[in-house]
Write a structure and sequence with these properties.
The chain is built from 5 helices and 7 strands. It is α/β, with parallel strands linked by helices and 163 residues long. The protein has a 7-stranded mixed sheet with strand order 1-7-6-2-5-4-3. β3 and β4 form a beta hairpin.
């Protein structure tokens, strides 16, 4: 699936439309890779998702902290950013592998910098800057990812300003 997102507000609305995906029974342990260049909208998408789940606090990029954990709407959600990794072993050195085995939802930016240690995605969301807006492409890799997307109306009812 590919959507054009007109601006940051549409990107955040797209993130909000993912709330049913991570709020489903099948989402236990779901791994979503957020890929795209700097400024492509990965954290903006995450902010929209968290707001739709009921989070009212600050949502910031975990570029310097590596991880921002959230507990919202009975979900443990972990937002990772491995952009600053110089070597994949930093993933293990930081003990981040334990977060991928506790059943929480893991949103991962710059996963390629932690390969081969970071788990492969159930769903990958690719974001790219396109003219004034962005292009979002959603790819599913596992049955769990496919089952989670059945709880979303993305294919039949895209978010506002998405085409």
């Amino acid at each position: 699936m590919s959507l054009r997102l007109a601006d940051a507000a549409a990107t955040e609305a797209f993130g909000a439309s993912l709330a049913p995906v991570v709020n489903s029974e099948e989402a236990h342990g779901l791994v979503i890779w957020l890929t795209g260049d700097l400024g492509a909208g990965k954290t903006t998408t995450t902010r929209g998702l968290l707001r739709a789940l009921g989070h009212t606090g600050n949502v910031k990029s975990p570029t310097y902290t590596l991880l921002e954990p959230y507990s919202v709407s009975r979900i443990s959600l972990y937002h990772f950013d491995f952009y600053r990794f110089n070597h994949p072993d930093e993933f293990l050195d930081a003990g981040l592998d334990e977060y991928f085995s506790d059943g929480g939802i893991c949103l991962v930016e710059w996963a390629d910098k932690a390969l081969p240690y970071v788990p492969q995605p159930d769903i990958e969301l690719r974001l790219a800057v396109e003219q004034e807006g962005r292009r979002a492409e959603l790819r599913v890799f596992t049955e769990r990812g496919r089952a989670c997307l059945t709880h979303s109306s993305l294919t039949t009812n895209p978010p506002p300003d998405a085409k």
